[in-house]
Amino acid sequence: MPLKLTILGSGSAVPNLQRGVSAHYLNINERRILIDCGEGTQLQLRRFKLKFQRLQYIFISHLHGDHYLGLVGLFSSMSLLGRDSKLIIFAPEGLEEIIQLQFKISGVYLNYKIEFVVLAATEKTLIFEDNSIEVYTFPLKHRITTFGFLFQEKTRGKSVNKDKIAEYNLTLPEILKVKKGEDVVRGEAIIKNEILTLPDSKLCSYAYCSDTKFIPELSEIVKNVSLLYHEGTFLTEDKDKAKSTMHSTALEAATIAREANAGQLLIGHFSARYHDTIAHLKEAQHIFQNVRCVEDGDEFVVE
Ligand SMILES: [Zn+2]
Ligand SMILES: [Zn+2]
User: Which residues surround the ion ligand 1 when the cut-off is CB under 5 Å?
Assistant: First the structure.
């Protein structure tokens, strides 16, 4: 399973018993990532049975409270429960100062190291890569400095063609080479890797765009993404409110998904003024069919 996303909080501004505030848990190729961490996120992780000590990376979009106020509590709990492995946090400037001040004044020392990486991109920029995933950030347009994120699978191990393996009578060391993408060399003869493997399936990707006003150019940045999360805080009938608070409507989120040729669109960050999301769904489906209005605890898998 290359990519699994769990929605921890689907509401905006204030957490309530129906909806937590922004936080997504992403497992991409066994990298365990938290994206935003609104108040109460550690309880949501428990509620949805996700082990928070296994988190390796946290990405914070911006420093409005509904996207980061859960961090201090989460960090404290991790320390109290014995964490000793490093945590890497990507966030806009200022977060480290906020966190350090909190711990300094309360005289708390964490048992593990937190490494802060300051986001400062003015265009789509690679900010993290290892041998299996890469992460890009890009600026969004909101009331304060805000970043979106694109998580992409880089490579996937080759799947061998079992018939061909039998036909050429490959040894185990040869099969291991084939899985790494290498040709098989037997004296003068070379058996090409593409003969022995199945064609590559599409690599998975996930884009997180919250909070932001409508940015038409965003569709190019997240082109062909498998799973797109785009905030749809408001309905078109409240577009003045969306404009003044620099948020998007469900229709605008769907427009980005259509233009980007996204596999599936997830809409969230709903304003508490709406009692349900039926109208958001209807509005979005006018222009993009494969859309879900998310609820806390929803899981999405991309194979
Ligand atoms: Zn927000
Ligand atoms: Zn915000």
Answer: 12, 66, 211
Taking the centre of ligand 1 as the mean of its atom positions, its distance from the CA of residue 211, in whole angstroms, is 6
CA of 220: how far to CAs of 100, 122, 232, 259, 260, in Å?
A: 37, 15, 19, 8, 6
- At 263, list the tokens: 């596999």
Q: What are phi and psi of 80, to 5 degrees?
A: -60, -30
Average pLDDT of adjacent 10-residue blocks, the chain of 303 residues = 94 94 97 98 98 96 98 97 97 98 95 98 98 96 98 84 91 89 90 87 93 98 98 98 98 98 98 97 98 98 93
What's the 188 CA to ligand 1 centre distance in angstroms? 62
Question: What residues pair up with 5 in beta bridges, in sequence order?
Answer: 26, 300
Q: Domain spans of the chain? A: 3-156+201-302, 162-196
CATH topology of domain 3-156+201-302: Metallo-beta-lactamase; Chain A (3.60.15)
**Ligand 2 centre distance from Cα of residue 143 (Å):** 7
- List of residues 6+ apart from 201 with CB closer than 8 A: 156, 303
Residues with a known catalytic role: 66
